[in-house]
């Protein structure tokens, strides 16, 4: 257990947490403002990754691919909202869960039909390739630092949008009392559409950013969706601030825990048992952490005020 390894894993946890935040931010707004459980939100993450892979192969430039993928993901999210999701807003949560799960199955098969079942790869942009020395003898990939910078930038812009603009005021009001906002003359359906489309684009942006460091494959959004729900439960439904803090905590707990749990258990167990037990416990740490948070704060860290 060295300081260098701890720093590397902390940076990896920060990067993972910011990716989770990009996904969870849209999900918490959709759930908080619209009271809509969208299990298909992880599909937008997958679609963003596939689109940037396709546009990157077409243009040969990751920057252009990203610029093309974002509005395409937004348009695809709005299309799903108009054709499917808006017809579910007045249904109960069980209907929403079943319908959006069906969308997951349909779109997972859809990307297999269009791009095939084999994983795709996206090359790291040449300008962001290589590593940079962040401490004496400590190298870290430039692209991963770029993901961290992009995530922090989006988080700052999202904070300004939600807290210092008129549309942000309406979103916060909608998360607090949507019927009252509608009664005051706001087109609540249009507000729902904007929130849903923006959330879809954020998830697509997350998928596009991880495409060069992960395999782009069908179903890649399913596991990350579970973690995104953990984030919004810990942070508080409808809270951007809570989603940001919870995502960072989850990223750090998961990444650092997987690296150091076996080492810590060696203080109490023999090396073989510590290694086996550590590998078994590490994936559970985020759920143990969630249970601990909810024990003391059942509504999450920063729940939207009702």
Automatic annotation (TrEMBL):
Keywords assigned by UniProt, alphabetized: Amino-acid transport, Cell membrane, Membrane, Transmembrane, Transmembrane helix, Transport
Any GO molecular function: transmembrane transporter activity
GO biological process per UniProt: amino acid transport
Subcellular location: Cell membrane
Membrane topology recorded in Swiss-Prot or TrEMBL: Multi-pass membrane protein
CDD domains (UniProt xref): TM_PBP1_LivH_like
Pfam families: BPD_transp_2
Coiled-coil zones: none
Top-level lineage group: Bacteria
GO cellular component terms given for this protein: plasma membrane
Transmembrane region(s): 6-32, 39-58, 64-85, 97-118, 138-162, 192-214, 226-253, 273-296
Sequence similarity: Belongs to the binding-protein-dependent transport system permease family. LivHM subfamily.
Name of the protein this chain belongs to: ABC transporter permease
């Amino acid at each position: 257990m060295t300081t260098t390894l701890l720093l590397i894993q902390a940076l990896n946890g920060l990067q993972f947490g910011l990716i989770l935040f990009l996904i969870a931010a849209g999900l918490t707004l959709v759930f908080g403002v619209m009271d809509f459980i969208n299990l298909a939100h992880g599909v937008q993450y997958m679609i963003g990754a596939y689109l940037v892979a396709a546009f990157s192969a077409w243009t040969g430039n990751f920057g252009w691919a990203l610029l093309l993928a974002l509005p395409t993901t937004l348009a695809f999210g709005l299309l799903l909202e108009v054709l499917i999701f808006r017809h579910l807003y007045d249904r109960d949560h069980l209907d929403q869960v079943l319908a959006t799960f069906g969308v997951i199955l349909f779109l997972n098969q859809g990307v297999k039909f269009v791009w095939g079942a084999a994983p795709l790869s996206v090359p790291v942009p040449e300008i962001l390739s290589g590593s940079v020395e962040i401490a004496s003898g400590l190298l870290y990939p430039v692209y991963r630092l770029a993901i961290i910078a992009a995530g922090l930038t989006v988080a700052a812009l999202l904070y300004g949008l939600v807290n210092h603009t008129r549309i942000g005021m309406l979103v916060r009001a909608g998360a607090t009392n949507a019927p009252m906002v509608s009664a005051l003359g706001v087109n609540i359906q249009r507000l729902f559409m904007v929130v849903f489309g923006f959330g879809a684009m954020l998830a697509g942006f997350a998928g596009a950013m991880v495409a060069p460091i992960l395999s782009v494959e069908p179903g890649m959004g399913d596991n990350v969706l579970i973690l995104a729900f953990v984030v919004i439960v810990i942070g508080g439904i409808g809270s951007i601030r809570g989603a940001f803090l919870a995502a960072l905590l989850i990223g750090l707990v998961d990444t650092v825990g997987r690296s150091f749990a076996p080492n810590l258990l060696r203080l109490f167990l023999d090396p073989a048992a510590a290694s086996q037990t550590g590998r078994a416990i590490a994936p559970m740490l985020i759920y143990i952490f969630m249970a601990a948070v909810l024990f003391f704060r059942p509504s999450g860290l920063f729940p939207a005020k009702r």
